[in-house]
Input
Amino acid sequence: MKNINFFGKSMIFLLLFALSGFVSGSAFAAKEVRYTKYNIHTQAKGGKLLSASYANYTRPGAGHYIIPAGTKIVISGKSRKEIKFQIDGDEREVQFLFHESRMGMSVDEYIQKITSADPVSLKKLSTLDRKGVAEGKAFVGMTREGVMTALGYPATHKTPSPDSPTWIYWTNRFGTLAVDFDDKGRARSVRE
Output
Protein backbone atom coordinates (compact mmCIF):
# COMPACT_ATOMS: atom_id res chain seq x y z
CA MET A 1 0.00 0.00 0.00
CA LYS A 2 2.92 2.37 0.72
CA ASN A 3 4.14 1.94 -2.87
CA ILE A 4 0.76 2.98 -4.27
CA ASN A 5 0.63 6.06 -2.04
CA PHE A 6 4.18 7.03 -2.99
CA PHE A 7 3.41 6.46 -6.68
CA GLY A 8 0.18 8.46 -6.47
CA LYS A 9 1.84 11.35 -4.67
CA SER A 10 4.72 11.32 -7.17
CA MET A 11 2.33 11.47 -10.11
CA ILE A 12 0.41 14.38 -8.55
CA PHE A 13 3.67 16.24 -7.93
CA LEU A 14 4.86 15.67 -11.52
CA LEU A 15 1.52 16.75 -12.93
CA LEU A 16 1.48 19.96 -10.86
CA PHE A 17 5.09 20.68 -11.81
CA ALA A 18 4.35 20.23 -15.51
CA LEU A 19 1.19 22.34 -15.36
CA SER A 20 3.09 25.15 -13.68
CA GLY A 21 5.02 25.67 -16.92
CA PHE A 22 8.44 24.64 -15.66
CA VAL A 23 8.74 21.74 -18.08
CA SER A 24 9.74 23.33 -21.37
CA GLY A 25 8.42 21.62 -24.47
CA SER A 26 6.21 19.33 -22.42
CA ALA A 27 2.74 18.39 -23.54
CA PHE A 28 1.63 19.83 -20.20
CA ALA A 29 3.21 23.26 -20.74
CA ALA A 30 0.79 26.12 -21.39
CA LYS A 31 0.15 27.04 -25.01
CA GLU A 32 1.64 30.37 -26.02
CA VAL A 33 -0.58 32.98 -27.70
CA ARG A 34 1.24 35.29 -30.13
CA TYR A 35 0.48 37.57 -33.11
CA THR A 36 2.35 37.36 -36.40
CA LYS A 37 4.42 40.46 -37.20
CA TYR A 38 4.94 39.33 -40.80
CA ASN A 39 3.07 37.26 -43.36
CA ILE A 40 3.87 33.57 -43.07
CA HIS A 41 3.88 31.83 -46.44
CA THR A 42 2.68 28.24 -46.13
CA GLN A 43 1.79 25.33 -48.35
CA ALA A 44 -1.06 22.90 -47.77
CA LYS A 45 0.29 19.39 -47.18
CA GLY A 46 -3.02 17.55 -47.17
CA GLY A 47 -5.62 17.20 -44.47
CA LYS A 48 -5.28 19.88 -41.82
CA LEU A 49 -1.52 20.43 -42.14
CA LEU A 50 0.20 23.56 -43.47
CA SER A 51 3.96 23.62 -43.94
CA ALA A 52 6.11 26.74 -43.55
CA SER A 53 9.83 27.43 -43.29
CA TYR A 54 12.35 29.94 -41.98
CA ALA A 55 13.35 30.17 -45.70
CA ASN A 56 9.98 31.90 -46.36
CA TYR A 57 9.08 30.08 -49.57
CA THR A 58 7.19 33.02 -51.05
CA ARG A 59 5.80 30.99 -53.98
CA PRO A 60 5.97 27.34 -52.94
CA GLY A 61 3.53 26.10 -55.58
CA ALA A 62 0.08 24.54 -55.41
CA GLY A 63 -1.65 25.02 -52.07
CA HIS A 64 0.15 28.32 -51.29
CA TYR A 65 -1.62 29.99 -48.39
CA ILE A 66 -0.53 33.20 -46.64
CA ILE A 67 -1.14 33.61 -42.92
CA PRO A 68 -1.53 37.41 -42.77
CA ALA A 69 0.56 39.67 -40.56
CA GLY A 70 -1.40 40.43 -37.39
CA THR A 71 -2.95 36.96 -37.15
CA LYS A 72 -3.44 35.52 -33.67
CA ILE A 73 -1.70 32.15 -33.37
CA VAL A 74 -1.33 29.59 -30.61
CA ILE A 75 2.09 27.94 -30.37
CA SER A 76 1.67 24.36 -29.24
CA GLY A 77 5.24 23.09 -29.54
CA LYS A 78 8.76 24.08 -30.43
CA SER A 79 12.18 22.51 -30.78
CA ARG A 80 15.49 23.40 -32.40
CA LYS A 81 14.06 22.18 -35.72
CA GLU A 82 10.43 23.31 -35.78
CA ILE A 83 7.63 25.41 -34.36
CA LYS A 84 4.11 24.01 -34.28
CA PHE A 85 1.15 26.34 -34.04
CA GLN A 86 -2.46 26.85 -34.99
CA ILE A 87 -4.19 29.91 -36.30
CA ASP A 88 -6.65 30.98 -33.61
CA GLY A 89 -10.06 29.55 -34.47
CA ASP A 90 -8.69 27.32 -37.26
CA GLU A 91 -8.34 23.55 -37.01
CA ARG A 92 -5.29 23.40 -39.29
CA GLU A 93 -1.86 22.89 -37.75
CA VAL A 94 1.19 24.72 -39.07
CA GLN A 95 4.51 22.90 -39.04
CA PHE A 96 7.11 25.68 -39.31
CA LEU A 97 10.55 24.24 -40.07
CA PHE A 98 13.49 25.98 -38.40
CA HIS A 99 17.27 25.61 -38.54
CA GLU A 100 19.14 27.18 -35.61
CA SER A 101 22.63 27.10 -37.14
CA ARG A 102 21.51 28.58 -40.48
CA MET A 103 19.55 31.33 -38.72
CA GLY A 104 22.23 32.01 -36.10
CA MET A 105 19.67 32.25 -33.31
CA SER A 106 17.61 30.02 -31.05
CA VAL A 107 14.02 29.11 -31.85
CA ASP A 108 12.86 31.35 -28.95
CA GLU A 109 14.83 34.31 -30.35
CA TYR A 110 13.28 33.69 -33.77
CA ILE A 111 9.77 33.52 -32.33
CA GLN A 112 10.42 36.90 -30.66
CA LYS A 113 11.51 38.36 -34.02
CA ILE A 114 8.55 37.15 -36.10
CA THR A 115 5.73 37.40 -33.54
CA SER A 116 4.48 39.73 -30.84
CA ALA A 117 2.78 39.15 -27.51
CA ASP A 118 0.44 42.04 -28.36
CA PRO A 119 -1.86 42.54 -31.37
CA VAL A 120 -0.09 43.94 -34.43
CA SER A 121 -1.36 46.90 -36.46
CA LEU A 122 -0.36 47.65 -40.05
CA LYS A 123 -1.88 51.17 -40.03
CA LYS A 124 1.51 52.90 -40.04
CA LEU A 125 2.51 51.23 -43.31
CA SER A 126 2.13 53.17 -46.56
CA THR A 127 -0.57 52.33 -49.10
CA LEU A 128 2.03 50.60 -51.31
CA ASP A 129 3.39 48.62 -48.35
CA ARG A 130 -0.13 47.47 -47.39
CA LYS A 131 -0.78 46.42 -51.01
CA GLY A 132 2.41 44.31 -50.96
CA VAL A 133 1.47 42.79 -47.60
CA ALA A 134 -2.04 41.94 -48.82
CA GLU A 135 -0.63 40.22 -51.91
CA GLY A 136 2.41 38.69 -50.17
CA LYS A 137 4.74 40.36 -52.69
CA ALA A 138 7.51 42.96 -52.82
CA PHE A 139 7.09 45.97 -55.11
CA VAL A 140 9.54 48.68 -56.11
CA GLY A 141 9.06 51.62 -53.71
CA MET A 142 8.12 49.55 -50.65
CA THR A 143 9.95 50.22 -47.38
CA ARG A 144 12.13 47.62 -45.65
CA GLU A 145 9.40 47.20 -43.04
CA GLY A 146 6.79 46.69 -45.76
CA VAL A 147 8.89 44.10 -47.60
CA MET A 148 9.62 42.19 -44.39
CA THR A 149 5.94 42.27 -43.44
CA ALA A 150 4.96 40.98 -46.89
CA LEU A 151 7.64 38.31 -47.36
CA GLY A 152 8.76 37.47 -43.82
CA TYR A 153 12.00 37.82 -41.88
CA PRO A 154 14.80 37.07 -44.36
CA ALA A 155 16.75 33.85 -43.73
CA THR A 156 20.13 34.85 -42.32
CA HIS A 157 22.10 32.27 -44.31
CA LYS A 158 21.20 34.31 -47.42
CA THR A 159 20.70 37.74 -45.78
CA PRO A 160 23.12 38.08 -42.85
CA SER A 161 21.58 41.32 -41.56
CA PRO A 162 18.33 43.28 -42.01
CA ASP A 163 20.66 46.24 -42.77
CA SER A 164 22.02 44.46 -45.87
CA PRO A 165 21.43 46.39 -49.12
CA THR A 166 19.92 43.24 -50.68
CA TRP A 167 17.58 40.72 -49.11
CA ILE A 168 17.39 37.24 -50.62
CA TYR A 169 14.23 35.17 -50.23
CA TRP A 170 13.51 31.67 -51.42
CA THR A 171 10.52 31.46 -53.76
CA ASN A 172 10.54 27.67 -53.38
CA ARG A 173 13.22 25.03 -52.73
CA PHE A 174 14.99 25.88 -55.99
CA GLY A 175 14.48 29.57 -56.75
CA THR A 176 15.25 32.89 -55.10
CA LEU A 177 13.99 36.44 -55.15
CA ALA A 178 16.28 39.42 -54.44
CA VAL A 179 15.05 42.78 -53.17
CA ASP A 180 17.58 45.61 -53.53
CA PHE A 181 17.17 48.70 -51.34
CA ASP A 182 18.30 52.27 -51.99
CA ASP A 183 20.01 54.45 -49.37
CA LYS A 184 16.60 55.62 -48.10
CA GLY A 185 15.47 52.07 -47.33
CA ARG A 186 13.06 51.70 -50.24
CA ALA A 187 13.02 48.78 -52.65
CA ARG A 188 14.68 49.95 -55.89
CA SER A 189 14.45 46.57 -57.65
CA VAL A 190 12.89 43.14 -57.21
CA ARG A 191 14.79 40.42 -59.10
CA GLU A 192 14.12 36.73 -59.71
